């Protein structure tokens, strides 16, 4: 069975996800021949290498930055994939009536295919999350370490400036009828305190 594996394509797909540190030939050399490879051995080696790459990435960035990066990437990927999923569900809903002509229950078919689409979406989210996590560029500025899109540090309170809204007044010093009411309700003066 292992003789039929396309290890080069597998390694190309793995390199797209994370920086794998060994080649397919290294695995073959470790077990002796291609026929001796089994899926469990390959999976264990790849998972161990993925954990090593993740821990290396986390040590480069620091744990809090890594958590923030994970959160931002997950939200971005999930948002994109969820929108695509909703479009696919709309498309499925438009064509599901044709299943009745094929003597199939449209509701059951819609549920089954909807679940399949949802499962495919979740798999794509996981795959893109891992790929983006290892390929995201992180910028270091001075004492602060931040990644693109991470929450900026808030300005100190002493630098914030507040200003009150200007109230339109007439030449006699009264509030204009169409100006916002000075009480802060958001209504026009004529509909609030000027109504009397």
Give the secondary structure arrangement, pairings included.
Layout: H1 7-17, H2 24-31, H3 39-61, H4 63-95, H5 98-101, H6 106-135, E1 138-141, E2 144-147
Antiparallel strand pairs: 1-2
Helix pairs in contact: 3-4, 4-6
Number of strands: 2
N-to-C terminal Cα separation, in Å?
89 Å
The dominant shape is: elongated
Radius of gyration, Cα only, in angstroms? 30 Å
Arithmetic mean pLDDT = 80
Order of secondary-structure elements: HHHHHHEE
What would CATH call the architecture of the domain at 70-135? Orthogonal Bundle
How would you name the CATH homologous superfamily of the domain at 70-135?
Helical scaffold and wing domains of SecA
Helical proportion, percent range: 55-70%
Instruction: Give the amount of beta strand, in percent.
Output: under 5%
SS element count, helices: 6
Uncertain runs are: 143-147
Biggest pleated sheet: 2 strands, antiparallel
Please give the order of strands in the largest beta sheet.
1-2
**Secondary structure category:** mainly alpha
General description of the model:
The chain has 196 residues and is mostly helical. 56% of the residues lie in helices and 4% in strands. The chain has helices spanning 7-17, 24-31, 39-61, 63-95, 98-101, 106-135, and strands at 138-141, 144-147. A hairpin with a 2-residue loop joins strand 1 and strand 2. Helix 3 packs across helix 4 (63-95) and helix 4 runs antiparallel to helix 6. Residues 143-147 have low confidence and may be disordered. One of its GO terms (biological process) is protein import. Residues 166-178 have a biased composition (Polar residues). It holds the Pfam family SecA_SW. InterPro entries: SEC_C_motif, SecA, SecA_Wing/Scaffold, SecA_Wing/Scaffold_sf.
């Amino acid at each position: 069975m292992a003789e039929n594996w396309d290890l080069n394509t597998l390694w190309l797909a793995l390199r797209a996800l994370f920086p794998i540190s060994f080649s397919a030939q290294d695995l073959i050399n470790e077990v002796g021949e291609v026929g001796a490879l089994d899926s469990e051995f390959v999976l264990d080696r790849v998972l161990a290498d993925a954990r090593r790459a993740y821990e290396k990435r986390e040590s480069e960035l620091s744990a809090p930055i890594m958590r923030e990066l994970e959160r931002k990437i997950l939200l971005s990927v999930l948002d994109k994939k969820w929108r695509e999923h909703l479009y696919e569900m709309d498309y499925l809903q438009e064509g599901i009536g044709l299943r009745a002509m094929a003597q199939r229950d449209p509701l059951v078919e819609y549920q089954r295919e909807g679940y399949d689409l949802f499962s495919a979406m979740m798999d794509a989210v996981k795959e893109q999350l891992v790929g983006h996590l290892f390929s995201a560029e992180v910028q270091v500025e001075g004492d602060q370490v931040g990644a693109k899109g991470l929450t900026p540090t808030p300005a100190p309170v002493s630098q914030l400036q507040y200003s009150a809204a200007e109230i339109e007044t007439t030449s006699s010093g009264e509030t204009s009828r169409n100006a916002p009411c000075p009480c802060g309700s958001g209504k026009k003066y004529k509909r609030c305190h000027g109504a009397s």
